[in-house]
Structure formats: C-alpha cells, structure tokens
Amino acid sequence: MNGQKIKILIILYSIFVTQLMGQWEQSTGTSGLDTQALFATGNSIFMGGATGTYRSLDEGQSFELSNSGNDSIGPTRGFTSDSLYIYTCTSQGVYRSENNGVTWEQKSNGIVNLLSHGIININSRLVHVSPGGISISVDHGENWTSAGLTGTDVRCVTHIQDTLFVGTNGQGLYKSGDWGETWIEINNGLSSTRFRAIQSKGNTLFAGGGVGSGVFRSTDYGTSWELLLNGITSSSYRGFASNNNLIVAGSFTDGVFYSLDNGDSWSQINEGLLDLNIFDLELSNNYIIAGSHTQGVFRFDLSTIIITPTVTNPITGRTWMDRNLGASNVASSSTDINSYGSLYQWGRDTDGHELRTSSTTNTVSNTTSPGHSKFVIGYDNWISPQNDSLWQGVNEINNPGPIGFRIPTVAEWEAEKLSWVSSNAAGALASVLKLPMGGARSRMTGAIGNVGNFVGYRTSNLNGAESRVLGISLNNVLIGNRARGDGNCVRCIKD
To answer: How far is 491 from 413, CA to CA, in rounded Å?
Structure first.
C-alpha cells in the first residue's frame, strides 16, 4: 500500500502566495522626525533627515542620533559606503565616517554646490548629485571633480554596471556610459520631467515621476519607458528599494506599494503607517524600512510576505526554489535560456557580479562586500584572504537566497540525485527540480562556456581552497571540486 502511495504521489508544487499578516511598526527614537534618506549596510541602518543623521543597530527597531562631526543644519538626503567608509550627503556637502557613523568628517573639496541630493558608490567611484550637477571622486571623497550636467538640478542617481542614470527636477532623465563625459536624454515615453527617485533592479529601471505622474519602467537601459498602472496610483514617488524578488515604491500621498513580478502588478501595504507621505525606502535583511515625512521611520517584517515559488520532492521531503536563482521561469528544456539563471562566485552575495552580462575586474576584494558589480577574474578566489564562514546557513554572511532559503549541502544534493530516473542531464531535467544546463563562467577570463552541455550547481561545502559543486554533463552527474572564483548556478533549498 505504501508503495502504491509513493507511486501515485504527485510532485508537491506550491507558490507561497502573497499573504499580508503583519503591519508596519514605528521605530523608537524617530517619532515626529522628517525622514529623507535611508541606507542599510551590514548590521547598521542609517537615517537622514531635517535634524541630521541617526543610526540603528537593531534592524530598525530603534534609532539614535549619530551626528558627531556632522555640522549640517539642513536635510541629509543620501548615504552610501565602500570598503573603508560610510558617506552621507547633506545641505553642507559630503561627510565621511571611518567608524560606522560614530563620528563624521566633511569631505567636499571640489563640489560646486554643497546642497546635496544623493550619493552612490560604483566600483570605488563615488557619484554625488546636487542642484549644481554631478561630481565624482576616485579617492574616497578627498577630492571631487565635475562630471557634467553643470547647473542642472539633479535629484537622484542609480546605475546598471558602469552606466549612470540620473533624474532631474524639470529636464527628465539622462544616462552616461563614460562617467559623465557625455550625457544622453532618455525621455521617450515619459509624461513627467521631474524625478526624485530612480532605481535599478537587475537590468530593469524604475523611475518615480513628479506630482500625479506615477512610476515608469524601462527594460532597455532607458531607451523607452512605460507608465505602470496595474495596482499602483498616479502619485509622486520619492523612494524605491529592491532585491531579486521584490521592488518597493514609496509615494508622497499613498504610502507603500510592492511588486513581485518586476512591476507588472502592485499591491499596497499601509496598515500601521501613521504617515502616508514616504520619502525613502530600504531593504535590510528581514525588513522593509520606510522613512516618512512627519512621523519618522517604520519597518515591515518581510517574513509576513511569502513570495518564493517552491517545489517539494515527495521522496526526500525537501522543499526547494522551483527555479535557479536569477532565472525568470522553470526549465521547459535543458537548453531553456530563461531558466539558466545567474552564475555566482562561491560565497559572494547578489551584488550584480552574478549576472551573465556583468563586466569583469582583476582586482581581488579584501572584504566580504566588494562594493561593485564586477566578476573578479585572474584568481582562484574573488576575496583575499579566503573566508570559509560564508554561505554557511540561512542567516550567515552573503547568503544570496530569499528569506528562509540557503545554499544546499553536498548531502542534500546527493539525496536529490538518488531520486532521479537517470544520472545525467536527462535525469536532471526530468527530476522534481527540472535542472537546466546553464554552463559555467571561467574565473580566469570571465567567459561563459559549455552552455547546453554542462552545468555546475553550488553547494555550501568546501574542500580546502576549493568549493564542492554538483556537476551535470550530458552523460554523468557527480560531486566535484571547483575554484571559488568560478561562476556557477545556484538552486536554493528551504531551511
């Protein structure tokens, strides 16, 4: 009887449907504050507003003033970080901290207009935007040089790899692929010329227009834009935040909206918000952090939004993501290119390096967060010294999976393999996991090879300086060793 039950058991497939069971909670120490900027890095969250800089060390539950050395008397409107410092931009220019915000020092030499609107770090370049245009620093903020759009009121900035995208107050959107040497207007399809928020999510751009316009999306690097209307209001949008699964938008009248399908449809989450005028948003580990105009900071527990498509193997009893990390769909064949997903260097987080189109660098990182989106080539490992504590569980450093998911172990892959009808590419595709042949990326050249003929799936296990990988070829499946610097596919398992 039990055998018959096993035979008739179908694959247990489930999508963790969106369920809103929680609500926003106000962060202590922020009631009544005008919040204009949020930034999460490591275990810290920074908030900036009309009264200076605040810091949280408990996932946004509480904030304390962290303004020593920062003499700004006007709004703080942006933060970023690199491997050495935290930066904030204020009405008095850029300030830098070498001790995680305990003290700050002004670093504004060369900035024409100190009334700052935003700042980001791209591959060790700091990009600052203001009513005077754009400035760039390549020496950790010690000196700044003009990078174009002089005299233009630039309000926001983002990037896709090394291409800059900015929004202005009255002249629409621009992009530059040469670090500000030249700028191109990218306003096709826009009904607004005023933008205070712009965000990249993979290779997709989202821009928040001025009063009554709404959210616009581009999937072709800004060449054309479309207004998003499904479930989202035509308001003014001043803040975005995103990860692999989620894009969140903050409106200046209607609160917070989120999308799980890259902006195709949206839902509203406002229960518990005391102010629906949202200036900025951030994602920090398990929370959405929202900064409001008059009531400070609020946080929303992401574990109450279940968003990950899964599949369960009835033989092993384990639940997995139904597709590779970074893939847009479940594999329909071994060579379904939309199912291949991203190629991760072992132990590295989702920072853009995993994209198949990411550029390369031959500079090894000395921190667990390189601060850029480039694939490191020329070495066996992307980080020096090597760090064996990465990827060791759902809550450990650089876990790239969604909330509640992690990198599988060798033993978990071995158990899945035993349930397949054959130990080859055909068996991998016919399995519960429907594994495609997405190839691998070379640590030495950055080239992607063997697509359609081979795939390596990462494990959390190590063998000395190398990592353990489930390798699938047309005729065989085995666990082998690969350099940590190689790029391999990731399929996450539910913890």
So the answer is: 10
